[in-house]
Amino acid sequence: MSKYDIVIGLEVHVQARTNSKMFCSCPNKFGQEPNTMVCPVCMGFPGVMPYPNREAVMKTVMAGLMCGCEIAKFSKFDRKSYFYPDMPKNYQITQYDLPLCGRGGVHIFGKGFSGNDLPDKVIGITRIHLEEDVGKLNHFSGYSGIDYNRAGVPLMEIVSEPDMCSADEAYAYLTALKQIMQYADISDCDMEKGQMRCDVNISLKLAGAKEFGTKIEIKNLNSFRSAHRSIEHEIVRQAEILDNGGRLMQETRGWTDERGETYLLRSKENAHDYRYFPEPDLLPMTFTDSEIGKIKNTLPELPEQKRARFVATLGLTEYDAQVLTQDKTLSDYFDEGAKQAKSPKMLANWIITELLRELNDRNIPFEKNPVPVGHLVELVELVSAGTITGKSAKEVFSELFSGGKTPKQIVAEKGLLQISDDSAIDKFVVLSIEQNPAQVKQYKEGKTTVIQFFVGQVMKLSKGKANPQIVNKLLKEKLDQM
Ligand code: ADP
Ligand code: ZN
Ligand code: MG
Q1: For the chain, how big is the Rg over CA atoms in Å?
Q2: Which of 55, 220, 365, 389 shows the smallest number of beta carbons within 10 Å?
């Protein structure tokens, strides 16, 4: 039992992938020359009129439905005033008291980041609202630059309840959210491109205490790993202050990856007064039950539904299913292959132990996987039908990466057909016995495990093509007769 309960709530920003920005027709495109994707609307020129992006609104509703949220029949946009160079209008269009999506929840389970089992639980979602992203400051030596290409990109803010109690749970929640966004094609959630960012709120209270402690917010974590690290660090820091009889003040902190520490950004006294008021240039958004129902019908399977289906109907273990659903492209790949494979479980094993390892070794992201799933299915069938040995299969597998050829073509070209013919194998068996009198003597003296040595010799002589079961059987017969 530890002395403190840990309380964590996350505010996660996710950019919706749309053709154009939230309130203008500029492209929503990353990685362009600075300030080339801008217009008078997203640059905040006087007199311009914003026009809401239907695709962004739809994607936010879908995000809400995927997270089990209530969709508001009536919601509106508000102005949040603040003065900072990243915001050319000096206010951000966001949603304050009437967000698009209300209460929901996201399920976490399975193995946590640190490898231990997570409690099976639902992390409550307070709300999801839609707003516009701000520009990006770039700091150079002696001066700074501002790129407004990102200003006005549709941005969802997903606010969680303070339901998480460890860095692992927060990590799992972030992973679950990212999966949902990718499955429903709402966002790619590429954190390196800033498409998903997260603020951590964390407080400690004496174990069992009713009232929450003072919350500290850590801003702008740009990887799940830094979110995890910052929580672990902050737990220790806050516990030390409390242990020494100190008090925590509500404050906003930053995180440095290099030092692995949080640092003070601003205290509550310096908190902003945002002076929210309804955005006068935009109409409220309304939805009827039947409109919401229609969107619901277009939703894809949730990652957790997919996991359950893989276990229930395809004979996978929970672990296999968790690995294969972690990424949408990967889960589709397996799903497609499972339709063709005689044994989906064997296909899953090959994907997990061979394909993913090989991709990882070669530093290839799954999207760039060069092996068509049909080829992998064919390879698995060749092994299970006994056409090639497991050893040859590995050889074929690495050839598959060079692309083009099917496993059957590779087997034919390399002459890898498994030798299951007794008389052919017998020749290798006899040869291996003749060449190794010392080991034969050991066998005769009762060291029967030396048979593995002979199996190895026969496999070498047959270039890995001899059927191992037959090799074993023949070796035993021969050696026992001697
Ligand atoms: P604020 O008004 O400061 O933005 P909110 O009540 O909107 O605070 O909460 C922001 C986030 O902080 C939410 O994700 C919420 O779950 C979390 N949170 C609120 N209180 C606490 C607390 N005492 N400890 C940890 N997290 C908290
Ligand atoms: Zn624009
Ligand atoms: Mg808040």
Answers
A1: 30
A2: 365
Supply φ then ψ for residue 197, to 5 degrees.
Answer: -135, 155
Longest dimension (CA), the chain: 101
Ligand 1 test: best mutation among 215, 230, 251, most atoms within 8 Å of CB? 215
DSSP 169-193: HHHHHHHHHHHHHHHTTS----GGG
Angle, helices 328-340/303-314, rounded to nearest 10 degrees:
20
CB 382 within 8 A of CB 352: no
Q: Of 207, 203, 193, whose CA–CA distance to 253 is shortest?
A: 203
Nearest to 53 by CA among 151, 132, 150: 132
Average pLDDT score over residue span 113-138: 93
224 SS3 class: helix
114 pLDDT band, cuts 50/70/90, is: confident
**Predicted pLDDT at 390:** 84
Atom of ligand 1 lying closest to residue 162 CA: 16
All structural domains of the chain: 4-291 (no CATH), 303-414 (no CATH), 422-481 (1.10.10.410)
202 lines ligand 1 (CB under 6 A): yes
Cα of 159 vs centre of ligand 3, distance in Å, is 8
Q: Whose CA is nearest to atom 19 of ligand 1?
A: 162
Indicate the average pLDDT of the chain.
Answer: 93
Strands 196-206 and 154-160: unpaired
- Those residues whose beta carbon sits under 5 angstroms from the ion ligand 2 are 24, 26, 39, 41-42
**CB of 110 closer than 6 A to ligand 1?**
no
pLDDT digits (tens, 9 = 90+) for 37-93: 999 999 999 999 999 999 999 999 999 999 999 999 999 999 999 999 999 999 999
Ligand having the closest approach to the CA of 94: 3
Q: Quick check: CB of 201 below 6 Å from ligand 1? A: yes
